[in-house]
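I am sending you the entry underneath: sequence plus fold tokens. Let me know what the token row says about the fold:
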Amino acid sequence: MNISIITIGKLKEKYLKQGIEEYVKRLSAYAKIEIIELADEKAPENLSVAEMEMVKEKEGIRILEKISDDTHVIALAIQGKMKSSEELAKEIDRLATYGKSKIAFIIGGSLGLSDQVMKRANDSLSFSKMTFPHQLMRLILVEQVYRAFRINRGEPYHK
């Protein structure tokens, strides 16, 4: 299985990089994983609604350029479906069973994802009603994907 995490913004925090690297290393026993960092759109602090939409649109174009037609896309969004770790594991297993060998998880920038990206997404996933920094979400996501593979293999993992 090929898993991509497509994300807006560079990761600067060393402790987050180390955590992500650890889970990517662990995941490599189960799947090919790739993290694609895309530049965030530079914008002033106070944006109009129209300017916010333009920023999301530009970031969305960059995201969509990285997704092939045969990729199952899961967008991370506050308004997405909340799932347990076991439900995410079942979903990944179901996709593999039905020949979807490419999955892309999308993490938007600070303004969220464009309508075009949300329309391209096959599913949307929410980890909480709370807002998290997108850099931290990268670590949480890669840990949950690793956990899903452990669950699917019947291997022990903390509950």
In short: The first helix runs from residue 14 to 27. The helical segments are 14-27, 49-65, 85-97, 115-120, 134-152.
